[in-house]
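Dear support,

I submitted the protein below through the web form. The confirmation email said the job was done, but the results page showed an empty box. After a refresh the structure appeared. I'm attaching both so you can tell me whether what I see now is the final result or a partial one.
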Amino acid sequence: MANDGEFQEQVRQLGKLVAQFDELPDSAAKTAGRELVQLLMEVHGRGLERAMEIVFDAGNFAPGIVDKMGQDPMVGNLLLLYSLHPDEFKTRVQKAIERMRPRLRKLSCTVELEGVHEGAVRVRLSTSGHSCGSSTTDLRSIVEGGMYEFAPDVTSLEVLGLEEPTPAGFVTLESLMGQRLAGNSLGGNFLEREGVD
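What the results page shows now:
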């Protein structure tokens, strides 16, 4: 049985192959190949749908089993592919946020859901200014990874609040004194007050 990493790599490889296939010139072979893939998808989709029906018909055990299937990285992604996932999109987005909160908290950062609309998700990050040297790239990576783990069908993800802050404690001389540094003709430096002749 493939592990999660191998499965994700297989999904990426499948995506690359489909993209390469779509770039082929139109031909009878391409048409037959597309029909083959569509037929396989329909057969697999019907099989998975029937499996879900059997689980639901099992009675008392069904809710726990269905939840476990939806949370499994491999099975959950397949259920998403065939629109059979037990959780709605917004529920999966909220689960993603709940899952990433403890990790972001360790970096003195909080995350809140701003909005969900037709596959587009907007979240807001807030840092305390002492985010342990975490860069905006690190924080964005945590949010994106966490979101796509639970909701790989997100069509767009907007992360607000990641503007690079001015380093704490750093104040420019110009802002303190209303002055600017200027070089004189001898190559030395002196302070020149703005607006003074």
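Response: this is the final, complete result; the empty box was a page-load delay. The CA atoms of residues 22 and 31 lie 10 Å apart.
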